[in-house]
Design goal:
Length: about 190
């Protein structure tokens, strides 16, 4: 399918909500998070369209690395969702690549996210630990906390990542309970032995 990626507009609200509600079934907090993030001046969303219909969405939001010398502005990629009927056609990969290009053009030194290394690893994401950046919560497994280093990265940058407030307001940092246990088991099975 031919896919176009463009910045999301206020008029996309209902389509973006529907896309994320379907992609994150049983996780209504993701739609609530997206609504709050979309109101921020330090956040930008992108939609994927086929035949004029929204089928995927990704967002970048400013965060920080609390480095010793100074706070360093970086971007956090979340949420990323593709309508179930349009998954496995490269739309998620295209949205992610578009977001990374935008982050590079904006001058950010790196992009961070939480997710499956099985999915993001083949798109070029690496463990954030390799950059000396620690996650904003102990509930984010080390392997799930991933980054892409951009050309503005500098070797002195290291420290804990700090998320923008809406991720905390909606309890969208890391996982809890059964979902955390399931993710930890899956990552342990994937880990190199
Ligand atoms: C993750 C998601 C955005 C991928 O979108 P997509 O358009 O299907 O992705 P692509 O077509 O670029 O890549 C598809 C490949 O990734 C794999 N994949 C998708 N999600 C995966 C996951 N969580 N873990 C491992 N592999 C995954 C698929 O198996 C597929 O591989 P295959 O076709 O070789 O079997 C989409 O599946 C989605 O919206 N999922 C629900 C919401 C979600 O989990 N978002 C990510 C949160 S970090």
């Amino acid at each position: 399918v031919a896919v176009t990626i463009r910045a999301s507009l206020p008029g996309d609200r209902a389509d973006v909500d529907a896309t994320l509600a379907a992609a994150f079934e049983g996780e209504p907090e993701v739609v609530a998070l997206e609504r709050d993030l979309s109101a921020r001046p330090d956040s930008v969303g992108f939609v994927a369209e086929t035949d004029g219909a929204v089928v995927g969405f990704v967002r970048l939001t400013r965060g920080w690395i609390d480095a010793e010398a100074q706070l360093v502005e970086i971007v956090v990629l979340s949420p990323l969702g593709v309508l179930p009927g349009f998954q496995r056609q490269g739309i998620g990969a295209a949205l992610t690549a578009h977001a990374v290009e935008h982050a590079q053009a904006s001058g950010a030194p790196a992009v961070f996210l939480e997710g499956s290394p099985r999915y993001y690893g083949r798109l070029g994401w690496r463990p954030a630990a390799e950059l000396g950046v620690t996650p904003p919560s102990a509930r984010i497994p080390t392997a799930a906390f991933q980054a892409i280093r951009l050309s503005h990265w500098e070797a002195w940058i290291c420290g804990p990542l700090v998320y923008a407030d809406p991720f905390w307001v909606h309890d969208c940092v890391g996982l809890r309970g059964e979902r955390l246990e399931t993710a930890r088991r899956a990552l342990a099975e994937d880990a190199p032995r």
